[in-house]
Write a structure and sequence with these properties.
alpha+beta; nine-stranded mixed beta sheet; seven-stranded antiparallel beta sheet; 2 domains; disordered C terminus; Pnp Oxidase, Chain A; Flavin_Rdtase-like_dom; single chain; Split_barrel_FMN-bd; 7 helices
Length: about 325
């Protein structure tokens, strides 16, 4: 048994315009102001999100203007037009060019572009075009422009989604950011520790930043890079480095041997780790050398400057 087609879907005359507009609104777009000069050289413009690239060779783009727009004839007869991609801080400009006004450019700083159309300041990008073709398309008219000049700036673009403005960059900047976690692998074998070049003329233990995949994945990737046979052991230090805004997690990682592809194993002693550049790391390795000699280990909690060592026995009931 087959279902009969919904007649509302096969007859475009019965589509609900409001519902169709809402459906179009599901597609997130940018916001532009399309500008041109009338036959008297006066600037005119309108807000549009119906902007699209068309071709790279030749360089073409398009926008559409409603047939009911008071500016339709001036744009149809214009020699060219410009598309100004608004930045996140230009919602007021979008609103100004979206409603009737005696002079929409009165409160907007603009200049003539290389091709001649008005360019608005502080936009995310702009395209200055000559008119390639004017195409009737239902209740709108498509303006097809040939790009004569353009510019892309660093300002994040203003977005539009389901009838509302969106500012992704500004919103992301306000979200609380998690700590930048650095994982240090203290890889030990037979009284030695693996040190690598720190890139500053000194030595360091192998380190890596922890991404979304987590500590275990980060450690596995680090050990694979070093080609060393080791595994995660106990947590040896957790501290914050206020200078760099990083949170450090140091793990003791026993190795099966002292074979590695990068760095070299050195004696775990104050003398052996003397060339470690970072003072906090050097102090941690010197403590480890002493604790290894005594067989009494602890975990450091604090900052790169001060904190306390909790002995293993302190955590036992």
């Amino acid at each position: 048994m087959t279902n009969s087609p919904d007649p509302r879907l096969s007859d475009p005359n019965v589509l609900d315009p409001r519902a169709l507009r809402d459906a179009f609104g599901c597609f997130m777009t940018g916001v532009t102001v399309v500008t041109a000069l009338d036959d008297q050289g006066k600037p005119l413009g309108f807000t549009a999100n119906s902007f699209s690239s068309v071709s790279l060779d030749p360089p073409l783009l398009l926008v559409s203007i409603a047939n009911r727009s008071a500016n339709l004839e001036q744009f149809r007869n214009a020699k060219g037009f410009a598309v100004n991609i608004l930045s996140e801080g230009q919602r007021d400009i979008s609103a100004t060019f979206a409603k009737p006004s005696e002079d929409r450019f009165a409160s907007v700083y603009w200049r003539h572009g290389p091709v001649g159309s008005p360019l608005i300041a502080e936009v995310s990008g702009w395209f200055d075009c000559t008119m390639e073709q004017v195409i009737p398309a239902g209740d709108h008219t498509i303006l097809l422009g040939r790009i004569g000049a353009f510019e892309a700036n660093a300002h994040p673009g203003l977005g539009y989604y389901r009838g509302a403005y969106v500012t992704p960059a500004a919103t992301a900047a306000q979200l609380p950011a998690g700590p930048d976690v650095v994982l240090s692998a203290i890889i030990q074998s037979a009284g030695q520790v693996l040190l690598v070049d720190d890139g500053r003329g000194g030595l360091s233990v192998p380190m890596t930043r922890v991404g979304r995949e987590g500590v275990q994945a980060a450690l596995s990737a680090l050990l694979e890079t070093l080609s060393v046979e080791a595994e995660a052991g106990s947590v040896y230090a957790v501290y914050e480095d206020a200078r760099l805004g990083t949170q450090h997690l140091a793990l003791r990682c026993p190795a099966r041997n002292n074979q590695c592809a990068k760095g070299a194993f050195v004696e775990l002693s104050p003398e052996g780790v003397a060339d470690v550049t970072d003072p906090a790391l050097r102090s941690m390795l010197q403590r480890l050398a002493e604790e290894s000699r005594m067989g009494n280990y602890g975990t450091y909690f604090g900052t790169h400057e001060q904190g306390r060592v909790q002995r293993i026995a302190e955590g036992q009931n």
